[in-house]
User: What shape does this take?
Amino acid sequence: MRLLSRSSLLALAAGALVAVPATAQQRTLTYYGDFDPAPLAAFQTAIAEFEKANPDIDVVFQNFDHEGYKTAIRNFLTADPPDIANWYAGNRMAPFVNGGQFMDVSDVWAEHGLAESLASALPSMTLDGKQWGVPYTYYQWGIYFNRTLYDQVGAEVPSTWDEFIANCAKFKEAGIDCVTTGTKALWPAAGIFDYLDLRTNGYDFHMALTNGEVPWTDDRVKATFTEWAKLVEPGYVVANHAAVDWQDAAALLVQGKAANFVIGNFAVPYFKDGGMTDETLGFMPFPTITPDVPRAELAPIDSVHITAGAKNPDDAKKFLAYLATAEVQTKINEAFGQLPINKDSEVGDDPYLQAGFELLSTTEGGIAQFFDRDAPAEMAKIAMEGFQQFMIKPDKLDDILMRLEAARGRVYK
Amino acid sequence: MFPRPIEQTAPTTQLLYKLALPAALLLWLLPLLGVAVTSVRPSSDLAAGNYFGWPSAFAWQNYVEVFTNSPIGQYILNSFKVTIPAVIGAVALSCMTGFALGIYKFRSNLLIFFLFVAGNFVPAQILMIPVRNLTLQLGLYNSTSGLVLFHIAFQAGFCTLFMRNFIRALPRELIEAARVEGVSEVRIFWYVVLPLMRPALAALAVLVFTFVWNDYFWATVLTQSAASQPVTAGLYALNGQWIAAWQLVSAGSIVAALPPVLMFFLMQRHFIAGLTLGAVK
Amino acid sequence: MAVAHPPLSRTEAPSRSWWRRNQQRIAPLIFLAPGLFMFAVYVLIPIVQSLWLGFYDWDGLGARTWLGWANYVELWTDDAFWTSLKNNVIWLVLYMLAPPAGLLIAIFLNQNVTGIRVYKSLFFFPFVISQVVVGLIFSWFYAPNFGLFYKLIEAVTGTGVAVLADERFVTYGIIAAGLWPQVAYCMILYLTGLNSIAPEQVEAARLDGAKGWRMLWHVILPQLRPATFIAVVVTVIGALRSFDLVSIMTSGGPYGSSRVLSYYMYEQALSEYGYRMGYGAAIATVLFLIMMIFISGFIWKMVRDEREG
Assistant: This one.
């Protein structure tokens, strides 16, 4: 297989160069990932460098397609575990941690001072006071907007939520949808909820909510939905978003039919492919709602983990430590077009990345992982359906909150 | 022959029919045309919202990209490695089981038939964990053979149903006559019944080929690496993590759909009416 | 049934082997054995294992906890379950349009003009293309703003209806997408069936003056019974499985209104957000029991028909 032979070839070449004595044995490290083509190439280079620096280790890497990986991982963790596997941080890794499928790597964090260099991701990698993997990338969320449309109706980039809503009225008059989104996959709606909650009630409250410590019928939750209703009830959100994927919704922004989109930075290449440029595509952090709440941001983290069934845990730990270094994170993220976690890494020139880096490094309030990673899987699904329903039928709010509350009782045992 | 052969009708009817055929086909395949057009669209068209309009450019390189972005050649080979043995195995086994259930009367006949039919109705998801564990224990996890064995076993249910019913419809006199002649049961099966089943065999082979070829779920459960994965699982590798490359998926799907259609086209000559007739002398 | 003893042929030895005497009794066992064995190992036993799983609480990774009937009790009060069940019934009913539609197309194509083989192959094509792509292209047909179907409705009634975003229409929209390959499937079954019709019966009926619908109903359809039986069986299977389309077109949405049992089971047991294998197995059991009602009904009818015929 193509991927296999390249790593092995490089390993062999590296081995020959360093003139390893014949008695030294090659230890293998198996690694399963789910990268896109461009990041895949970057990772393979990183792996090759690792092999060069550690000539007695041979990394056998296997790539899966992104969706298939989510099923495959549940099989291979029990069936035929690799040493290292990709996954996500936060509550998303909880099933595997609780099922004893991931290895505790707190020693790697302690040994290499990762709590310092990867500080922004520490809370998300920690469960029960221990660390379970190493993060290597994240990306910011925010509001991407069509500058041309803003100029057209004479709207200013808002800094508060009320200013944003006032702009929406202007857009509606001009026959433009203020906000576009595609909730077919549910999670874009969760992004809006996360931000509204973080801005209304703050990071600590939001974490408590996703941890099941706060009832959904609480007044503060209702306050978040009140703010949301300001957007939904006057009809500022594009119609029929439930039938549409985020990409189809993005097309509306590109075509100038909608003005704003609450989405992550991964959407930028797509906007540009459709014809937007650095001048026409704007980015702004989500506006403030409650004035003295410390600003928190959404930035989902991708991470690598060592499996409990790993045959070569020692080398796996070496690899994790390697992946945590500033240099490696810089290089990988260049290809990803995303942000490194390591605070000493450098960020690419792209204006949106720079804006994101600015945004995330000045966040005092805390970095949330996104609703479907912060909340347990089952709760996330039910809640996201509730968010979608609220956006279509805001008058059903009480029913929705009661349903969510009932789920909370069942899920968080 | 039903309906009345068109050659026997008035010339205008014949002409109408010959015009109606392509028109009906066009209407029928309209969605497919949608897929085909999408497959030659550049990705910028989709990003700009141009889904059904005239493509801004004909991106034939999508087809090339499909072959370069993913090891689709290997995937297609794997698909053949899984599908062909599975078809042969399932059809062969079910010829026998269909014969047994269709010709012979014995007490548990209906019960066993019932089991085959019932087992075929189950949702695939319910079998996932036990079958995966079994495949692991047999040491066949992540191999095409593991997939082949599963498909042979699972398709045997449907195929038995199919075969048994066709065999039941065959004229009994043939078999009785052969028995009177002293022909052994095995020879009856091989020389008398099997040739009569040819149209059914052909149809069944095409159907099973299509089912196994298009299977996505079991490919993801029982195989992991590109060395063993068939093309259905590989197609979704064309989708990125965030941005679904629908134009590539469309192109890939068309490529992946060609073998079953080809198979059907080739097997058509086996559907000959009156084959059964010829044997009843 | 009495085992008939074939008369001794002059070329055979007087003492026949035990096999020759008993082969009619043994033969079925031999022929059945390999197929039945494979089927039992890969399907029947796993079904039992999975049904048993419905009594446990298991996340697929760690240990199992015995729950008894608790999963089923929870199902009873689960709104999503009842929505799924209702949708499954709608699927079943509407999918029954597929065999007649398939028959009509098969009859339409059952001629011998030049190139008919190509036409038959191409009519079959929708069944062959991956269901995910079928779902995708129909989603785009229905999509708001740019979908052809949306624009058509807009042109006719003034406001567009986004079928997949509306809880009243979403299931029907998906069923329409599913019927496309399903009708192709029935068509090929009927084409096979039409090929095995005894021509002399048709000729005899024609001589008697039968034609058109009467011919179809009294002469053709009875001979198509095996094909009809299979067509109905696979259509029921297709209606109750319906997983790929629901998954790609709506993921069960909007907010779960197009969910079906097979998709719900997957969501609960195997999806990104579902780690409840026991609960999923319970749902699968319900689905299985529904299917069992149909199978029993069909087999009973089939046996009765065969006894009469």
